Amino acid sequence: MIPGRNFPPRKPSRRENVNESIRAREVRAVFPDGTAEIMPTSAALRRAQELGLDLVVVSPTAVPPVAKAIDYGHYQYELKKKSHEAKKKQHVVQVKELKFRPNTDDHDYDFKKNHAIRFLQEGNRVKAVVQFRGREIAHTDLGRKLLNRFAEDLTAYGAVDGSARMEGRNAHILISPVKAQQPSTKPSAPPKAPSTPS
What domain range is 47 assigned to? Predict the structure, then answer.
């Protein structure tokens, strides 16, 4: 005889505040025809079931709790849809890092500057880092000059958070995107014609 396998017991799936799970004695029941009345939970549940619907508590903190007679499956679908739409509208701001050397040539500088412009237009922050290797650390002024030039070139797209800072063998600045100001659409008032004596 093969011994039975010991699986952990399954937890019963509980739907809080739906139908028989509602613990409140009475609720403010809202029905599809727009009627709302305070009644015992059992009576509200019976009426919802007669309509072929579920009784769902939508406002548990109210006194008494507000319960709607609705299709619970459709209600869950709508909630998921709303949260998905809200997530799509959110923009997570990221910090994009661009690395330079004190003797970065113009072509490489322009290439990275264009990347920075794109990042700022997308609403992300840009961290420009100048790395000093070996004896280059003696020329930190070149790195600061490069970072200041970089910040000046991006003034139309971003604002510098503070001045260039040294951290170990690196100098860096942080640039945040600026929101483009909307041009005013107010029509200018036409000049008044001189009044003529009647």
Answer: 19-86
